[in-house]
Design goal:
It holds the Pfam family DUF4174. With 149 residues, this protein is α+β, with helices and mostly antiparallel strands. The chain contains 7 helices and 5 strands.
Length: 149
């Protein structure tokens, strides 16, 4: 069974908490909206939002495959991956997606959203992990995180 919004979380203690919250919410009759998910992520996580018409879209499958081998790198950079499938989104979520990210259904889009909630990168093609991590690793907040570790 496919959920309204599919969430993939990589198991670090803070991500596990958010993942559990989103999983439980997604299982209840009242699901979290895309806006709520992004609001909950702000200042805690970077979001890679993968939007596509369906889970069978070739670019959607490619993006997921590219990320599958990079779970450790995603977790190290405090990423959460949110899958937004247009055939399962509410009209409110579609409108929010368009206004917040500029993504127009039915096109595929991969959108990097920083911890500050701002769109940092938007692509109509899958983003190679090296490009994604290169973008993030140049950000001042990520530079501070790396110095602290």
């Amino acid at each position: 069974m496919t959920k309204l919004l599919n969430h993939q979380f990589f198991f670090r203690p803070p991500l596990l908490l958010l993942g559990l919250l989103l999983f439980l919410t997604a299982q209840s009759p009242k699901r979290m909206s895309l806006e709520q998910i992004l609001r909950e992520s702000r200042w805690k996580y970077r979001v890679l939002l993968i939007a596509a018409p369906t889970a069978e879209h070739p670019d959607f499958k490619t993006q997921k495959a590219l990320l599958a081998a990079k779970k450790t790198d995603l977790a190290e950079r405090d990423f959460v991956v949110v899958e937004a499938l247009y055939d399962q989104l509410s009209a409110t979520d579609k409108a929010f997606l368009k206004s917040k990210t500029g993504v127009q259904p039915p096109q595929f889009a991969a959108v990097l959203i920083g911890k500050d909630g701002g769109v940092k990168e938007r692509s109509r093609r899958p983003i190679p992990p090296a490009d994604l991590f290169g973008t993030v690793d140049k950000m001042p907040m990520r530079q501070q995180e790396m110095r602290r570790k």
